[in-house]
Amino acid sequence: MSLPVRATVTAKVEAVTPKGDEGLLVEFLRVYRSSVQFVVDEIWGLDEAPSWTELHVMFYNRLIRMGFRTHHVSEIYKRAKEVVESTRKNNGSKPVLKKLTARIHTLDYRLDLDKKILRVAILHDKWVELKLEWYSYLNKYLDKTWKPGEILLSYKYGRILVYITFHRDVVFREPQAIMGVDLNFNNITYTIVNLSSNLVSIGVIPFRGLSRALHYRKLAEELQRKHPKNWRFLKWARRTRARWLNKARYILVDSAHRVSKKLVEVAREYNAVIVFEDLEKIRENNNSDRKLSWEKPLWCYRRIQEYTEYKALLEGIKTVYVNPAKTSRKPPNGKKIKFINYRFLQLGEVVTTRDVVASWNIALRGLKRMRGLGVTWSPDSPRNEAVKTRAKRGNPEARTTYSKIFTAIHK
After folding, report:
1. Distance between CA 83 and CA 44 in Å, rounded?
2. What is the DSSP string of 210-264?
3. So where are the chain's domains?
4. Which residue blocks in 45-174 are alpha helix, DSSP H?
5. Is the pTM value of this prediction over 0.90?
6. Which residues have a Cβ under 8 Å from the Cβ of 266 and sit 6 or more positions away?
7. What is the pLDDT of residues 322-351, one digit of tens each?
8. Contact indicator for 272, 177 with CB cutoff of 8 Å
9. Rounded (5°) CA angle 302-274-271
10. Which of 142, 162, 235, 407 has the smallest number of CB atoms closer than 10 Å to its CB?
């Protein structure tokens, strides 16, 4: 029997202060931010970020005298150390914190999910009461299977936002099939084989999100082409361009959710492990033609993988990543393969698409890993990049080859 894995979700909820304590909360967030900045400034010049014990010796007494509770102080250590380590990893300059956010430990808040009221401890052992504006889709986290964890408080543009984390343990199912998934610009092709390598099912899920998003990106670039020198200084042009690019982003996010939900439904029906390609080398591949290079930046393949991986985890379905090399060229059933054009081929006596062959080979490689050759449940490549729908700056007519693929995060 497989060991349980912890699944975590974050619920974003807007809140108000019915007792008029918004000023106290904002002051707490400002002091919290300045304290994190103080710790960051102190440890930035060190060769290595200090351990938690060293941070405790260096800053505990000073932060306690400012009115913080013990767990506030520990969260300040943790946040400052994370900021320094991540910035150094990316070779950045000394970070300057601007957002009014605070991470709150489970012992520093009281959450009443029945009344939708949150009480948060702030400076000098004072408590602020927040009324949560609940949403119906969050009711699924109110059963006894989900437990609340730490929360994040944020204040921006006069709005109080609360990010509540819920977690539960998930036990993976024992698989009865393997589902190989081939991600393409306009469709998602999947092939299911059983544990004996026999073909079970083949299917195609249309994906129109990319073409729709590219339409709005084209509109944004045409707007820049009409006003190449002064579009940044025209308020209506900036707003119109931002609206189109936001629509493109929303389309990609919604399409990725729809496709990932469908993939998990199919995998649940066949009780199958989902196998994806670990598409790490696309960033370095600059051999594409101009049209393909224009489409690549909005191809949200990592967002689809991330959403599917998470939705599958909640259902107890495993996700595997395999090497995608030559998956569309190698015959999966040992028969002779003959290419007709860039999309169709003849496999034995059957004419099919390269997408089907690729997904079939992906499923077989996933089965091979499942049989004991070093299964990897998550890829080494990053998962937290954001879809960048912004049009090219400057002259949109310049022949620039895109070399980066910007991908998605979980909702």
Report:
1. 10
2. HHHHHHHHHHHHHHHHHSTTTGGG-HHHHHHHHHHHHHHHHHHHHHHHHHHHHHH
3. 5-170, 177-370
4. 52-65, 70-89
5. no
6. 179, 190, 192, 203, 272
7. 988 888 888 888 888 888 887 888 888 888
8. yes
9. 145
10. 235
